[in-house]
Queue: 2 jobs
Job 1
Amino acid sequence: MQSVRKGIITVAGLGTRFLPATKAMPKEMLPVLDKPVLQYIVEEMVESGIKEIIFVTSSQKRPIEDHFDRDRDFEIFLKSKGKLNRLQPLIDLCEKVRFFYTRQSEPLGNGHAMMCAREFVGDEPFAFSDGDSIIDGETPVVKQLVKVFNKKQASVIGVQRIEDKKAMMKYGNVYGTPVRGESRTYRVSEFIEKPAMSKVSPHGLIVGGMRYVFTKDIWAHLEKQREGRDGEIWLADAANSLAKKKPFFAYEYDGIYFDTGDKLALLKTTLHFAMKDNEMADEIKKFVCG
Ligand code: UTP
């Protein structure tokens, strides 16, 4: 039985929806309170038992390498000022995992980006996340998926279930049948991106926040994957092709998904985390309600 030790996080997109903020600053480094978005994702992976993470980056994304590296001089300075505690959680995080970097030289889609990390992963199963979604859950979502993987030894995607059929048309929909005796688990038959209202998933399953555990089987499908929507190579298309050939499961994770890919979404995400802090919550209520 193989265990999931490696993770891929793709962070090579252009982040045009945040321009000009993202001209020199990766959108994955924009803060949600006192942590960049990407740190939430790394924490999720580390708490899920991932020991090695590879970031698929681009020439614009150097601050990511600096963030997840030690800076001894700065640490000594902070210590002398009695402020090292402010950095300590990040130092502790970096000690629990090894980081690797590879580049996607052109943003040709998330499937193409994942392919850039193929050699790093080899034939091992691995976790995958995009770089701009946070899922706030009691149990880290990757950990929930790894649990399903350990039982099934097959690829797993994290899904959400929603009732609103109109809203479902805006997302990737997941189709399949519930696995008997295993709550929240479905055997996937197909993925369809933004289907028409008459074709939305009957179980209400959507891809909210990209979280997967893949077996090595995904690589052959990704290698064959042609350009899809907007001329990009999409991971969902390769996953769809894999689900038609091999067992592929969807797990309705326990957690709240937050997109951070545009201004309003990032603001809502920040408010969610701020409202979890009693002191900040009172201030925000006063500020908003007067
Ligand atoms: P998005 O689809 O949000 O695209 O990427 P984007 O380019 O980052 O942002 P906009 O649309 O121009 O504002 C989702 C995640 O996938 C990564 C991004 O870095 C982000 O973390 N990604 C996307 C890649 O790594 N490579 C790609 O070719 C596309």
Note: The radius of gyration is 19 Å.
Job 2
Amino acid sequence: MTRTAVLAIHGGAGTILRAAMDPAAEQSYHAALNDVLAAGQRVLADGGSALDAVSVAVRLLEDCPLFNAGHGAVFTSDGTHELDASIMDGRTLEAGAVCGLKRVKNPVLAARRVMEQSEHLMFAGAGAEAFAEKQGLEMADPSYFHTDARYRQWQMAREAGKALLDHDAATLAARADAEGIPHEPIDPNRKFGTVGAVALDLHGHLAAATSTGGITNKEPGRVGDTPLIGAGCYANDATCAVSTTGSGEMFMRMVAAYDVAAQMEYRGISLEAAAADVVMNKLPRIDGRGGLIAVDKHGNVALPFNTEGMYRGFARVGEAPVTAIYR
Ligand code: ASP
């Protein structure tokens, strides 16, 4: 039987300010998503592993300043960056994760090294950085993660207070207008900006990877769902691969990524039904906002979100990539 190898990616979910839509900005998001999908698709078409495809895709998303991971990550309340990432191999159920990184250029590559080159699953902070450095991974000066757009978002978040209420978004958008800050299609002040990828390869194996700068103005030391296996990332060849984005605290409480796989396994329901139950039913019960991307062993893809938009796309080998932002 020929399988359809497939890769799906996300670049965060959030609220759209319709009044503030900017066609040029929108276009740059589609173009960035397309480039990442094309690169991952090549890996799969060449017979590469799902693990390699998600590593390449997330590394490229980290390098792109449009997304909140790697270069372009959001600021903590101290004005620093603390990056988290995770990866999981559905073939072996091996996984790796890192959190609180300040100097590693590509956190997803560090997570992969943890999985493949250490006897542990998760490294935090200075120890994680020392491990990455010893592994020969590229280190970056903290200034590498600075982008002016995120800096201004942080300034505005600080002025608005920690919790940005819904009605604040309009005020912040007006401020952005006044200061000539280009609008992103999804309101950056109410956007969960993690990036992630899931893939099924030609050999029938699944993998998932997720990477983030976390939440704007988060307290130093705060860690969300992204590096937690089962919450922000999960993969099992028997069921599916999942990567999430959203209000991390709620995704942790729901063990969201694993719940999709568990529902498929225990209830015998489809990927689509399991993913929809988690995102549209269970997470909203505790005010969990965001979405996820998932692929099952048959190549079915689900991209549900309970916000107004989610940067997302998928590409099957031999077919043109599909990208989308809004519903
Ligand atoms: N889930 C991420 C976190 O809580 C945030 C995001 O998805 O943007 O750190």
Note: The CA atoms of residues 88 and 94 lie 6 Å apart.
